Amino acid sequence: MLGKIIVTLFVVLTCCSCKEQQVKIVDVRSNLSTKIQLSSPQNFISDILEPTQIVICDSLLFISDWHNSSMINVYDLNGNHITETLYKGRGPGESSNILRIFANNHHLYASVADGNIYCYNLDDIRNNKRLPDRVLSLPDNLYSFPSISVANNQLLFVGRNNDLSNICQTRFCCYNIDKQILQEFGEFPLTDKSLYSYPQNDYSKYTAYQGHIHPSPDGNKAVVIYFYAVGLDIININQKEIKTSVFYQYPEVELVNIGDTAVKAVKRKEKSKRGFLDVWCNNEYIYVLYSDKQFNQEYNQGCYILKYDWDGNPICEIELDREALCISIDQHNRYLYVVTPTDTGSDIVRYELNNEML
């Protein structure tokens, strides 16, 4: 299982007015009494390259893979290939890289290089229309770390401005597309003592806390996972505040000079734990993929899925019978889909779920 890790849960209530943080400390492992093992899945799709994400919406399965010339491939839930979109290139509807995909309100969103989001109508995808019907972009003075999400016509991202003379001190940004208004919110954890060692006039803190924001289907909340920190934040999108923070390990990084310059770069410590590898959520629960491995151990894959409610309470631990690269659950909560590595690439398998796992 996850090993003998002592986990501290920080329930942090913060808002834009910087109210005093209220911290409650709980031993997470002692509360995670339900442990489930899953085995013998059904093979679903074989011999694909190395997907970074899978998303299911409206009976379609989307595979994101920047190794392919077509970076999004679409399948039905019988495993039949339907179409493909988002090609590598510099032309209309193309990009050099894909960062993150997610789906809600009958649309697929792809966060790509250069701070853009391509929006696809699912009916257009079924009809083999390969160009996005809309492209959303951040203003030039904003930068995301690394991907952008969409919820209720707002762009959400872990990020900062590009003004070195006036660096914002918050972690998250919400940009209203119609009103063209930016709201910044979310303090860095006051209990992370290493924050005091970061330079105050550069972006080291943002690099250490870079990660992905994944919104709930109803668009009212979002969960944030991190590359260098083992933990997550739960955001109230409507109130623009961090509702709950759950951290196993703060970012274990060190600052190093770039060449002979005075410019600092953030470098991970090889013996620190990897952050959560992937996340999937519905309106009731959050599921995160965890490896329990250090950065100096090979491969960015894990076999543990930790389930939380939207108050940050741990519900159960699911152990898979194989390593996984990314996860997703269908909209009817019948199957857990898992990308698992093979000697020649990757396969997608699916586990049948029961009420205990949901």
Please give a structural write-up.
There is one protein chain. The chain is mostly beta strands and 358 residues long. It has a single domain, classed as TolB, C-terminal domain (Neuraminidase, 6 Propeller). It contains three helices and 29 strands. It has helices spanning 28-31, 122-126, 204-208, and strands spanning 8-10, 25-27, 35-38, 42-48, 53-57, 60-64, 70-76, 81-87, 98-104, 107-112, 116-121, 134-137, 142-151, 154-161, 172-176, 181-185, 211-215, 221-226, 230-236, 241-249, 253-257, 264-268, 278-281, 285-290, 302-309, 314-324, 326-329, 335-341, 346-352. The strands form seven sheets. It has a six-stranded antiparallel sheet with strand order 2-1-20-19-18-17. Strand 10 (107-112) and strand 11 (116-121) form a beta hairpin. The two termini are 19 Å apart.
Sheet with most strands: strand arrangement: 2-1-20-19-18-17
Average pLDDT reading: 84
Count of domains: 1
CATH class: Mainly Beta
Rg (CA only): 20 Å
What is the 3D form? Answer: globular
Helical stretch count? 3
CATH architecture designation: 6 Propeller
Name the CATH homologous superfamily.
Answer: TolB, C-terminal domain
CATH topology: Neuraminidase
Low-confidence stretches: 1-29
Largest sheet composition? 6 strands, antiparallel
- The helicity comes to under 10%
Provide the β-strand percentage band: over 45%
Terminus-to-terminus distance:
19 Å
Can you lay out the helices and strands and say which pair or pack?
Layout: E1 8-10, E2 25-27, H1 28-31, E3 35-38, E4 42-48, E5 53-57, E6 60-64, E7 70-76, E8 81-87, E9 98-104, E10 107-112, E11 116-121, H2 122-126, E12 134-137, E13 142-151, E14 154-161, E15 172-176, E16 181-185, H3 204-208, E17 211-215, E18 221-226, E19 230-236, E20 241-249, E21 253-257, E22 264-268, E23 278-281, E24 285-290, E25 302-309, E26 314-324, E27 326-329, E28 335-341, E29 346-352
Parallel strand pairs: 3-26
Antiparallel strand pairs: 1-2, 1-20, 4-29, 5-6, 6-7, 7-8, 9-10, 10-11, 11-12, 13-14, 14-15, 15-16, 17-18, 18-19, 19-20, 21-22, 23-24, 24-25, 25-26, 27-28, 28-29
